[in-house]
Amino acid sequence: MGKRRLAREYALQTLYFADSGKVTAADIEQYKKDFEDKLDADGFAFCGALISGALENIKALDAVIAKYAKNWSVTRMSVVDRAILRLAAYEMLFSKELVPVPAVIDEAIELAKKFSTENSSRFINGLLDQIKKERSHTAP
Questions:
Q1: Is residue 140 domain-resident?
Q2: φ, ψ (nearest 5 deg) of residue 33
Q3: 97-105 long-range CB contacts below 8 Å, 24 or more apart?
Q4: Where residue 16 sits, what CATH number does that domain have?
Q5: Rounded CA gap, 137 and 101, in Å?
Q6: pLDDT tens digits for range 66-99
Q7: How is the chain split among helix, strand and coil, in percent rounded to 5?
Q8: Tell me, what's the pLDDT at 136?
Q9: For residue 1, what pLDDT band results from cuts at 50, 70 and 90?
């Protein structure tokens, strides 16, 4: 498994943790530190950037997700699917890395297959395919 895929998995787990209850910023930092010894320095930095970026832009991400989620409110989505969508939407729209959209979508689908359901992977693929339209409007 590539270091970026592993970093995305850990970022997903942290976003899930952040969304699963009343946690503080300190709780999130402590949770994130558990991954430090499992990633090299670049991977850990990438993971941290994904986590902080998604959390800092959560309202904007949820607005974009809601815009394209026909008949689904963001709050009705499973916590795992919501975290995957936030992570991928952040990476497509706000990350300075400018990872190619097909790669971001493929990684999100793989995360959904591993951590959610087959139906979730199709749902996420369709939604991210719509969200990619926003990239040119919001990218730095």
A1: no
A2: -60, -25
A3: 97/46, 97/49, 98/139, 101/132, 101/135, 104/128, 105/129, 105/132
A4: 1.10.940.10
A5: 14
A6: 999 988 899 999 999 999 999 999 999 999 887 8
A7: 80, 0, 20
A8: 66
A9: low
Domain that holds residue 52: 3-135
Query: Does the pLDDT value for residue 140 go beyond 50?
Result: no
DSSP alpha helix (H) spans, 70-117: 79-93, 101-115
Q: Which two tokens stand for residue 35?
A: 């991954």
Q: How far apart are alpha carbons 86 and 55 in whole angstroms? A: 9
Higher pLDDT residue, 40 or 137? 40
Residue 78 · residue 58 · CB < 8 Å: no
The tally of domains found in the chain comes to 1
With 80 as the cut, is the pLDDT of residue 135 above it? no
